[in-house]
Design a protein that fits this description.
Elements: H1 2-5, E1 13-15, E2 32-34, H2 37-41, E3 48-51, H3 58-68, E4 72-75, H4 78-94, E5 99-100, H5 111-118, E6 124-130, H6 133-145, H7 149-159, H8 167-170, H9 173-187, E7 189-190, E8 197-198, H10 206-214, E9 217-228, E10 231-242, E11 254-261, E12 265-272, H11 276-294, E13 311-312, E14 322-331, H12 337-347, E15 352-356, E16 366-376, H13 377-388, E17 398-402
Parallel strand pairs: 1-2, 3-4, 4-5, 7-13, 8-10, 10-17
Antiparallel strand pairs: 6-9, 6-11, 9-10, 11-12, 14-16, 14-17, 15-16
């Protein structure tokens, strides 16, 4: 590392709740080992504080305490930065210190630096991402082995890909925080994560992958941010995408980001999105960058969000978006089902593209699929709600967008 920096980085202090029993790597001899973070952020010989706690409570206190004491901050905390990162950066700028956050999204992919600096000369029009490795691993296993969601989730927990409480991953909240953060860098928009339309993957079954294959598609938990006039469509939800699409080849616990610019067109970034080693690389890289800036005569600093200000932005209502759709049904078989469904679609001005049904002997839990021509989402959602009330439905229809342009 010193060969790249031209000087050494020294670890002055380490804070951990298990500080007294913690075994540190060989050669690491900090002058302070403590379980009180206040001792670290106020230490006169500490110039950069790395916050690796996560969450929005103690982590916020650590970050804000470090900035108040004139320390630069490196963080991997996607939740905190997505929620309040711009305000934190403003406080850091006012104190003349740096906020670095590359590890907060796609740990093994330097996508912040790309959006903030590498393609700063372009105007990003669309950004797609597979931003949660746990969900992508689960969907990959369901597709490749035909396993049920619950079985794959249990295996993911055993392997350490999923937490004991997997809600943030499988219900899309982790990906939502990451998308809010990337959208701020890509579009200069301050978006609250709670304003992003979010759906998880709990209802995706092997049956859905069978039908997706019939359509030449796969299913991914897709993070999407797309300009539409002066607004943005922003969502996290399962989507069908063509098998030949580059994003379709992202398997297992990997992440990917695809950006389309008005001038530079397509760029694609792929790598491990999580885990101690990829995250560690991103954290250390940030430490090195901040350390360079602390040396005498630093070059003009690039704001961590790429913009000197962010515009408070509410995503456009998802109901206005027009997309092709995949509807999967489970029904008790009886005459007139297609007629009734087609009638509801016609009432809402929606055209059918195709009807698919694989052989199945269980006539009391019979799956089949209808794909739709491009239709406004509000109309599709309204039609699906009405379909859910039909007496032959075993469960509410599953509606997934089909991203044919990927």
């Amino acid at each position: 590392m010193s060969e790249k920096l031209g000087f050494r980085l020294n670890v002055t202090a380490v804070c951990s709740r298990t500080a007294k029993t913690k075994t540190l790597p060989a050669g690491l001899a900090p002058s302070l080992i403590t379980d009180d973070w206040r001792e670290v952020v106020s230490h006169p010989d500490v110039h950069i504080v790395a916050e690796l706690i996560g969450g929005t409570t103690v982590a916020r206190e650590v970050v804000e305490g470090a900035i108040a004491n004139g320390k630069s901050v490196v963080t991997a905390n996607k939740e905190l930065i997505a929620l309040d990162g711009f305000a934190i950066w403003q406080r850091a700028a006012a104190k003349g210190v740096t906020l670095a956050m590359e590890a907060s999204v796609c740990g093994g992919i330097p996508v912040h630096a790309v959006l903030r600096e590498g393609i700063a000369g372009d105007r990003v029009e669309t950004l797609f991402g597979i931003l949660n490795g746990t969900s992508n691993y689960i969907l990959t296993e369901i597709e490749q082995h035909g396993s049920a969601f619950g079985d794959v989730l249990a295996e993911a927990q055993r392997l350490g890909y999923a937490e004991a409480d997997p809600t943030a991953d499988v219900d899309g909240f982790d990906a939502r925080s990451k998308l809010a953060l990337l959208a701020s860098i890509a579009f200069g928009a301050r978006i609250q994560p709670a304003d992003i339309h979010t759906e998880g993957i709990r209802r995706i079954s092997p049956t859905d992958f069978e039908y997706a294959k019939q359509l030449g598609c796969t299913i991914k938990l897709l993070c999407s941010a797309r300009r539409e006039g002066d607004g943005l469509f922003v969502s996290v939800r399962p989507a069908l995408m063509p098998l030949q699409a580059i994003m379709a080849g992202v398997h297992g616990p990997y992440n990917a980001v695809w950006s389309k610019g008005a001038f530079g067109q397509d760029t694609f970034y792929y790598g491990r999105g999580a885990g101690p080693l990829p995250t560690g690389v991103a954290v250390v890289s940030d430490l090195m960058r901040v350390a360079r800036e602390l040396r005498p005569g630093p070059a003009h600093r690039v704001p961590p969000f790429g913009f000197t200000d962010l515009v408070e932005t509410k995503p456009l209502p998802m109901g206005l978006q027009k997309r092709s759709w995949y509807l999967r049904f489970r029904i008790t078989d009886q005459p007139g089902i297609i007629r009734d469904l087609a009638s509801i679609l016609a009432e809402h001005g929606i055209s059918i593209d195709a009807v698919l049904q694989l052989p199945d002997l269980d006539k009391h839990n019979l799956p089949f699929v209808i794909t739709l021509e491009t239709a406004q989402e509000s109309a599709v959602r309204s039609a699906v709600e009405k379909m859910s009330q039909l007496p032959f439905m075993v469960e509410p229809p599953l509606a997934i967008t089909m991203e044919r342009s990927l």
